[in-house]
Amino acid sequence: MTRTREDRREAKETEHPSTVFFDTHTHLTDPRFDADREAVLERAAAAGVSRLVEIADAPEDWPRVLAFARARPQVARCALGLHPYYADACTDELLTLLERQARLPEVVAVGEIGLDYARGLITPQVQLTALRRLLAACRDWGKPVVFHCREAYADLRSVVQEVFPSPPEGRRFWGVVHCFSGSPDDAEFLAQRGFALGADGPVTYPKNTDLREAFRRAGPTAMVLETDSPYLPPQSRRGQRNEPSLIPEIAQALADAWAVGLEEAARVTTANALELFKTRIP
């Protein structure tokens, strides 16, 4: 049967969704994806997730994450960091190596770095010392920051006020607070100082009304989407492995909080992510 031009147009739109999402924080090099990594990426593309940033938490992860991004230049970039769990490894030698790696074309940010007072075995003082050194380096290198913060928002605000006392000049964002979990006041403070906020699966959890209020008050221009795959699945997949194809559920929760449509939530968060990472992935 001969297909009409309209039939072909509809088929093309089905194959390539018009709603484009950017997953700004993934861990797809995690061993939990070893059995089906390519299938996960295919499902992401089918769901409209056409861009992602793969995150490395520690130096031993950097080569694997770089290789992942290099193998997928049409889709992926990466960030290299030192999770606060490993803050005691922040030496002069590590900073020299990180600077060399951070200047590679695949690397769009430094992170994740930050503070974790919930599970970290490293003392807050050691974490804060490492964070200040890493942030000073990021400013020198002109790289955005991917912050990790758990139960440490008071100290994070103090560090931001100290290192980033005003919004950046010539760009919109200093970086992003990954998997934002602070208060509405924290959200406003960070957004006003030039930080994007990452929305993950927890925004879909029914009891997280304060988190949705934080994102409502920060507003669409401060938000980016992320899954943190394989962690933090949205409500429909609680207790299961997370993956980028579930981004639309997170985007819908934000759209509802802002009283806009899903396509508008996708459009603005993707634009924010492209600006944050100063990348134009095809």
Beta strand %: 15-25%
Widest beta sheet: strand line-up: 1-2-3-4-5-6-7-8
Number of helices: 10
State the secondary-structure class. Answer: alpha/beta
Helix content: 40-55%
Order of helices and strands: HEHEHEHEHEHEHEHEHH
Catalogue the unreliable spans: 1-17
Arithmetic mean pLDDT: 92
What is the CATH superfamily classification?
Metal-dependent hydrolases
Largest sheet: 8 strands, parallel
- Named CATH architecture: Alpha-Beta Barrel
Q: Could you name the key traits of this structure?
A:
single chain; 282 residues; alpha/beta; TIM Barrel; eight-stranded parallel beta sheet; 10 helices; 8 strands; 16% strand; globular; disordered N terminus
Description:
The structure is a single chain. With 282 residues, this protein is of the alpha/beta class. It has a single domain (18-277), classed as TIM Barrel (Alpha-Beta Barrel), CATH 3.20.20. The chain is 41% helix and 16% strand. The protein contains ten helices and eight strands. The chain has helices at residues 5-15, 37-46, 62-70, 92-102, 124-141, 153-163, 184-192, 209-218, 247-258, 262-277, and strands at 21-26, 49-56, 76-80, 107-116, 145-150, 175-177, 195-199, 223-225. An eight-stranded parallel β-sheet has the order 1-2-3-4-5-6-7-8. Residues 1-17 have low confidence and may be disordered.
Q: Summed up, what is this model?
A:
Helices cover 41% and strands 16% of the residues. The chain has 282 residues and is an alpha/beta fold.
